[in-house]
Design goal:
The complex is a heterodimer of chains A (353) and B (510).
Chain A (H helix, E strand, L loop, with lengths): L1 E7 L3 E6 L4 H7 L17 E6 L2 E2 L10 H5 L2 E3 L4 E2 L3 E5 L13 E12 L4 E8 L10 E5 L6 E5 L9 E7 L5 H8 L6 E8 L11 E7 L4 H12 L6 E7 L8 H10 L3 E7 L11 E2 L2 H8 L7 E7 L1 H13 L7 E5 L3 H4 L13
Parallel strand pairs in A: 1-7, 14-15, 14-18, 15-16, 16-17, 18-19
Antiparallel strand pairs in A: 1-2, 3-5, 3-7, 4-6, 8-9, 8-13, 9-12, 10-11, 10-13
Chain B lengths: L7 H8 L12 H4 L24 H24 L12 H28 L3 H29 L8 H7 L4 H11 L3 H30 L3 H31 L3 H19 L1 H10 L7 H20 L10 H7 L3 H11 L13 H10 L4 H17 L34 E5 L2 E5 L2 H9 L1 H4 L5 H6 L8 H8 L15 H10 L4 H8 L1
Antiparallel strand pairs in B: 1-2
Helix pairs in contact in B: 3-5, 3-9, 4-5, 4-6, 4-7, 4-8, 5-9, 8-9, 8-10, 8-12, 10-17, 11-14
Classes of the chains: A alpha/beta (353), B mainly alpha (510).
The complex binds flavin-adenine dinucleotide, FE2/S2 (inorganic) cluster (FES), fe (ii) ion (2 copies) and zinc ion (ZN).
């Protein structure tokens, strides 16, 4: 039994399986709805039912108040339709979001490469082509590892038969440990995607800054390759941060691109170069390299940040002090299970930061 | 796909921002006269992000529904003689304080937001302020309706608007809002929209609402919930104004910082009234003032100011003092009110043994050390039939207008006392915060209408205290004022519940 859900204001149609949540069905069919916790506690995914009935599921009474239930509000992440529905969601249709449907793939390992002592580059061949926007990520299922692991796609969207990942080994990490030690060429894994709202706002006229830390080069690599392939003429600057020279990977690729495209600049930064590195480039953190490269003035740009949470955090502060604010900053935080554990109180000042 | 309907965003835009027109025959600066004089620089109003998307049509529908529910509960409360089911008649004094001290602020907020809702060049900001203005009018109305039921059975409710304008302790919240409303529009928004509605609102409303819930007052709980359902919008407006100002121009940062310093200090001073209400006026306690300050101010503000630091905003200047004072202010304020209960429109009393022990437990570092002995002494006097009332008039702080009863935090037995001289006149302050606020704008604060000064100058009904309290304040002497023990409120309550008067109990105990 499936139910049909119409999502206003776009009028998109979604087929929801018996027992499936509205949010899950929407995301899998390329209809993006705002969501955060995914399990009924934050209220981010609240929608209004215009026609029909649904089971509200496990919505917390704080995230969905009685009064709102009376008014026919639902949390899409835990509500299940009981008949065909029409719902209204608070969606800002981002003109640059293409909303490719989420699909399941069988991904076969074509090659494994040591990009750095801690990062492996994995190339998967897919059983059927994937449509994605540069910057988005996939979920990978690994044998013997509970739950999926998120990795950003490093290849450009035009190469739609493959998925290239840059995977940093997390100390004591189950999934990245498996990838680094047990994964072999020829292995086939279930993969789903594309996910995420990290993509280039191509309709925005501003010049672009990419700040990447560690394996956070993955998304920016895809985004930069895509922009250059499409002949984008805006100024594009990629800043790549690594600890030392051996951790700085794909440098030749970007130096080459910088030579070929005069609108593209590449700034590598090492925060702990070794003596034998004979490092001539910028020494310091990647956000410091950005301050130095742009003279501390970032207004008039769009910035895309990708990598470990502390790097993102430092970069946001640097950008804001250089007067670039939330509306012009996009980011993908490489969260791990360890990051959620702090549970710190968050103010409501920022939406995505 | 079916035909496209408008998204909430577009609908909101069309029903709000699209109502704007081009100013073709008048100069912009003439239309929005108040936009520039505070030193705030606005470069681009289009960067204003609507903090909520509630259109007027939806607003009426939603609010009408809330009213329907609310008034159904008020009716049920009245029919069931809800006034008899509160924990005890002492509790009602907490809501007397609310009606005389806080509800008129809702009205002031309505005025203030209506005013600034005219002053901003950005239509998004104007509409958001006008909406909040309507909310605040609804808040004051529902509060008056809720309390009107108590007015039939208890003393001290009858002349709340009159009293708000005149009575000494009510000049504390009144002058706070007067100060904000007589400031420029951006300062008003930082003062009320941000500092009060975002940073301090939980410290004001949660104590009263959970106090009501713990003490069987369903009417107050319900108007509280109903008002709180609007507050999410007020809070997001407060946040948007701060972000907007800080992002518009770097020169705005120091101005906003000074306003935040000022208004969070002014706000915590007003909240002294809430502090004593929580610790002393609720027969069933929710949590101590200190605990709620830790949760709703210290934790929440540290997260907020960590985020604001990205804009170059620092922790408010007097936050450290305010944090130290959480151990003291409720006891000090209750002492002041106990001293001057003959001049107040509600009753006070000394805590009983169980309540004293609760205070010792909640304030292990201060209550026994600094306050218990004084309170036990006053209780002894009362038992001996010599209930202490302070016959003098207190000196007031020129800025916050609270009697000078706060102490130094490094020596809690020494009254804090600051002075400034301006044009040959000496002015007195309760704290560094209040003095600095004065020193920055002395020409504003020398105009303060200080109740005690006004009495001495003969502007308050006459030379005798009875003239002031009775005719000028309209306190029913011997009825609204004085200790709870022996009051008509107490007698009525005891009659309803066949209880023994407290006086007799006291006599038996001694
Ligand atoms: C959208 C997105 C995109 C990403 N893209 C990339 C990418 O392109 N490249 C990349 O290298 N990484 C990427 N990441 C990060 C990557 O997903 C994580 O590193 C990965 O999930 C870690 O999995 P794991 O099984 O190795 O570690 P886990 O076993 O999940 O553990 C991670 C760490 O947390 C600790 N831990 C586990 N459970 C708990 C707990 N309950 N409390 C406290 N600590 C705990 C572990 O000891 C370990 O140190 C991305 C993350 C996100 C969210
Ligand atoms: S995503 Fe948090 S409640 Fe649905
Ligand atoms: Fe209000
Ligand atoms: Fe409010
Ligand atoms: Zn003061």
């Amino acid at each position: 039994m499936t139910y049909q859900v119409t999502v206003e204001p776009t009028g998109d149609l979604v087929e929801v399986e018996e027992g499936q949540t509205i949010l899950d069905a929407c995301l899998r069919q390329g209809v993006w709805l705002p969501f955060a916790c995914g399990h009924g506690t934050c209220g981010t995914c609240k929608v209004q039912v215009l026609e029909g009935d649904a089971d509200v599921g496990d919505a917390s009474p704080f995230a969905l108040m009685d009064m709102e239930r009376d008014e026919g509000k639902l949390l899409a992440c835990c509500a299940r339709p009981e008949c065909d529905l029409v719902i209204e969601a608070d969606i800002d249709v981002d003109p640059d979001f293409l909303g490719y449907p989420i699909e399941d793939f069988q991904a076969t390992v074509a090659s494994i490469e040591d990009l750095s002592p801690t990062i492996k580059g994995i190339r998967f061949e897919l059983d059927h082509p994937i449509q994605f926007q540069a910057g988005q990520y996939i979920n990978l299922h690994l044998p013997g590892v509970d739950g999926a692991r998120a990795f950003s796609i490093a290849n450009k969207p035009s190469e739609n038969g493959i998925v290239e990942l840059h995977v940093r080994r997390v100390p004591e990490g189950a999934g990245t440990g498996y990838i680094h030690e047990q994964l072999r060429e020829g292995d086939t894994l279930p993969m789903s995607g594309p996910y995420g709202q990290f993509f280039v706002r191509k309709s925005a006229p501003e010049d672009l800054i990419f700040i990447a830390g560690g394996s956070g080069l993955s998304s920016p690599q895809s985004m930069v390759l895509d922009l250059l392939e499409q002949g984008d003429v805006r100024k594009i600057t990629l800043l790549q941060g690594a600890r030392n020279l051996s951790e700085l990977y794909n440098r030749e690729l970007f130096e080459q691109l910088a030579e070929e495209h005069q609108n593209f600049s590449y700034v590598p930064a090492l925060d702990a170069p070794l003596e034998e590195d004979h490092w001539q480039g910028f020494s310091g953190y990647v956000h410091e390299a950005a301050i130095s490269h742009f003279g501390g003035q970032f207004a008039g740009h769009k910035a895309y940040l990708c990598g470990p949470p502390p790097m993102i955090d430092a970069a946001i502060t640097a950008l804001m002090q250089g007067r670039l604010f939330e509306r012009d900053i996009y980011m993908e935080r490489f969260l791990t299970a360890a990051d959620g554990a702090e549970g710190t109180v968050k103010s409501a000042l920022f939406k995505k930061i | 796909m079916s035909t496209r309907k408008l998204s909430l965003k577009d609908k909101y835009r069309i029903l709000t921002r699209d109502l704007e027109w081009e100013y073709s025959y008048r100069d912009y600066r003439e239309i929005f006269k108040q936009e520039a004089f505070e030193g705030i620089k606005i470069t681009d109003w289009s960067k204003w992000e609507d903090p909520f998307r509630l259109t007027m049509d939806a607003y009426w529908k939603y609010q009408a529904e809330k009213e329907k529910k609310l008034y159904a509960i008020f009716d049920a409360f009245a029919q069931n003689n809800g006034q008899q089911n509160v924990t005890d008649a002492r509790y009602v004094n907490a809501i007397k304080l609310f009606l005389t001290g806080v509800s008129p602020l809702e009205y002031q907020a309505y005025n203030g937001f209506a005013h600034v809702g005219r002053q901003f060049g950005g239509v998004g900001a104007r509409v958001a302020c006008q909406m909040q203005s309507l909310d605040e009018l609804r808040h004051v109305q529902t509060q008056i309706h809720a309390m009107s039921h108590y007015n039939k059975f208890f003393d001290g409710f009858q002349d709340f608007t009159h009293m708000h304008d005149r009575v000494w302790y009510l000049s504390v919240p009144k002058s706070f809002f007067d100060d904000a409303r007589s400031a420029g529009p951006f300062e008003f928004m930082v003062a009320i929209g941000f500092s009060f509605e975002y940073v301090l609102t939980n410290l004001l409303f949660v104590p009263f609402m959970s106090g009501a819930a713990y003490n069987g007052d369903m009417a107050t709980v319900t108007f509280g919930f109903s008002a709180q359902s609007d507050e999410a919008r007020h809070m997001t407006l407060g946040l948007e104004i701060i972000k907007f100002l800080l992002e518009q121009h770097p020169d705005n940062v120091p101005v906003v910082q000074r306003w935040i310093n000022k208004w969070l200090w002014r706000g915590t001073r007003v909240l002294t009234l809430v502090a004593m209400m929580m610790d002393y006026m609720l027969p069933n306690k929710v949590m101590s003032w200190k605990e709620s300050f830790e949760v709703y101010f210290e934790e929440a503000a540290s997260a907020l100011f960590k985020d604001l630091a990205r804009y170059g905003i620092e922790m408010p200047r007097y936050a450290e003092t305010a944090i130290l004072e959480k151990e003291h202010v409720s006891h000090q304020a209750w002492s002041i009110f106990y001293n001057y209960t003959h001049a107040a429109a509600f009753h006070t009393w000394m805590p009983d043994d169980k309540e004293m022990d609760w205070l010792s437990e909640k304030y292990p570092d201060t209550f026994d050390k600094y306050y218990r002995a004084r309170f036990e002494h006053w209780r002894e006097l009362e038992r001996a039939g010599e209930r202490y009332y302070n016959p003098t008039l207190p000196m007031l702080c020129q800025t916050c207008q609270i009697p000078m009863g706060f102490t130094e935090m490094d020596n809690p037995t020494l009254t804090a006392y600051r002075q400034s001289v301006y044009q040959g006149e000496r002015y007195n302050f309760c704290s560094d915060g209040c003095k600095d606020i004065f020193d920055h704008e002395p020409e504003k604060y020398v105009q303060a209408w200080l109740p005690v000064h006004q009495i001495f100058q003969g502007n308050c009904g006459g030379p005798d205290i009875e003239d002031v309290l009775g005719d000028y304040y309209r306190i029913n002497l011997g009825v609204d004022n004085m200790d709870f023990h022996g009051s008509p409120d107490e007698a009525r309550w005891n009659a309803w519940h066949n209880l023994q008067p407290a006086e007799d109990k006291l006599k038996q105990a001694s």
